[in-house]
Design goal:
- This protein has 9 helices and no strands.
- It is mainly alpha-helical.
Length: 199
């Protein structure tokens, strides 16, 4: 009896993947309904955050949609492939969060040092230099993609929390975090040689 059920499940999986390959409109929704509980559980074991887990699950489903041709039932069960994708994507998100926290910590240290220096001295020369630097930072900020520009302005100039930004822009929290991280990386790279002047 178990073998019959397993065979039926495997046949349904094969049909599901064929439908995804053919871009049948409801195929991804069927995949979501079928595997959501097990994939969400795997992601939660890594991230321990409901909103992040939902966001990563969406990324996994999109990855399946994009990479469906690379799946082969001859190499293993669909569930095993999906579980591997979910685990890897969750670990990637964990690494991104760690990198983002490090970048944010460096930014806060930089701001604190700048604030102390500003309170100690307000010479005309220093103010002129800072005006030039602000202009330079603005030039690099506007060079970022609009979605990164928006979240960085809101996070660092308007001092909004990531959850507030997520709500205001109707963007998943994980996407907001990724955009901030990418924007900070690009700004750091663009201003690499000027770090001593910024700090």
């Amino acid at each position: 009896m178990e073998t019959i059920v397993e065979n039926e499940w495997a046949l349904e999986d094969q049909q599901l993947m064929k439908d995804i390959l053919r871009r049948v409109p409801d195929a991804l929704d069927r995949l979501h309904r079928r595997y959501r509980p097990v994939l969400k559980s795997i992601i939660m074991q890594v991230l321990h955050d409901e909103a992040e887990a939902d966001d990563v699950l969406q990324e996994v489903l999109l990855q399946v949609w994009d990479r469906a041709p690379s799946y082969s039932s001859g190499k293993g069960k669909l569930m095993n492939w999906l579980c591997t994708l979910a685990r890897r994507r969750a670990i990637d998100r964990l690494r991104q969060q760690s990198a983002y926290r490090r970048a944010t910590d460096r930014y806060e240290v930089s701001c604190n040092v700048s604030n102390i220096e500003a309170s100690e001295s307000h010479t005309v020369e220093r103010e002129a230099s800072r005006a030039d630097l602000r202009s330079l930072l603005h030039q690099h900020l506007v060079a970022l993609p609009p979605n990164q520009q928006e979240v960085i302005r809101m996070a660092f100039l308007e001092e909004k929390s990531q959850r507030e930004i997520s709500a205001l822009t109707h963007t998943p929290l994980g996407t907001v975090k990724t955009r901030i991280e990418l924007g900070i990386k690009k700004l750091s790279h663009a201003l690499g040689g000027l770090r001593e002047r910024v700090v």
